[in-house]
Here is the input.
Amino acid sequence: MLKFKIVAEDDRLGRHLVSTKLIKNGEIIFRERAMIQGPAQITIPVCLGCGKAINESNSHPCTECGWPMCSEICQKNPNHIPECRYTVQRGDKVSIKNFGMIHPIYQCVTVLRCLYQKQFLPEVWAKLEKLQSHSEERKNTPKYKNERVQVAEFIRRFFKLDQIFTEEDIMEICGIVMVNCHEVPLGDPPYIGIYDTCSMLEHSCRPNCSKSFANDGSIVLVASEDIERGDHLSICYTDPLWGTPNRRHHLYESKFFWCSCPRCSDTTEFGTHFSAMKCRKKNCGGYLLPKTFLEKTDNTKNSDWHCEKCEETASCFSVQDILERIGTDMIELPKGDPEALKKFIDLNSLYLHPNHYFLTESRLALIQNIGQSEDGLVNVSDENLDIKAKTAAQLLSLFSVLTPAERRLRGMVFFELHAAVSEMGRRSFEPNIMHSRLEEAKKYLNECIDQLKNEPSCLPEGQILNQAKQNLKDIDVILQKIQNNGSDSVPVIL
Here is the structure.
């Protein structure tokens, strides 16, 4: 029995998915292979079989059409059939000689693959044409105008398809690709995929599902909390670690709707104050937020911000000035420098709520940078080790409320937390304290493994998963030694 059903279109959601039974947190809801996959619109030359980057040394032009491939095996990949067939029909092979830089011809490949379904594979096309394209909304955007020339006109002229496909046909497909594609991060560079069932998942800035990718590019949809029968299934279409105005603006620009999900509707973002600034009134201790982020479609740029505790207000312009300055300072921070990050956090904690997205992003970078030298955590000061552990715990507490569906992110933070706690145990001179620390580290490793259990080994998160499993075994060995002889000299090497 399927764990969900497809509900027919309505004016607001279109087709969407609803659970048909209780789905437990961490349970796989479905796996789905892509209907169409291909290179991103903006990309360097890639193999059109496997998606790997192509350069002068590994380029093996397809003997039929000339598109550069990385091997004869990839030349026979079924994914390559559409552009190969259309190129052969035009009578001249494609010749690509500039590698390692963005190449405009690749803008047409994924669109060509969709056109091929329209012409030759009606069963697949029947699914594709049901997906939203937002063509009317797109017509007034610069991207639409560029695609008319660089994609639609180019395809009709270069591949001599003007008698088969109209400009409207191609622009409709451009919209379907833009609105429905998922970036698949399994290669370098990433490619994109269009999925049937997954395209019906609705958006929420605090979704109840998370997606992972299998090695073959299939999407694996996992429940990120207990989902009751009849609940809508949702994922996040944007970056959940952006502030509310930025998330809403990005969704409007890329998906053509203004989000009014429960998180966007709550200026405090479930009490986390993720977008809030400190009140400027001395000794107040309150936080500034607008009355709503939904009032205007211009991201409330004309709305004053109000202190939740006193009557202090700040104009949106003064708020924007402060946030823009802080954002610029963060961009200019030297890479890999924990001390610079600590100073940035300390300074801007004077202006921002402790959970503010700028401080959260900086803290994420901080816990990853502490201990990134060749010696790992061995030479990290006790102070910085304590900061790493406490900051990781703080982030996990925030994410459990704000965005529990970010399983990859949470798994990484659990791993960093285990590393800090394990090193604290190694430095202890008391067997009981060492034992307690290692048991605590085991708990975090098990959480890490649970969060990352569906990640493929080709991704950094999958590599962390494998390391976490090995570290868990190592800790068990050490704990057994401590139990056997009570020695306080057992090394902890993780």
Q: What stands out?
A: The first helix runs from residue 72 to 75.
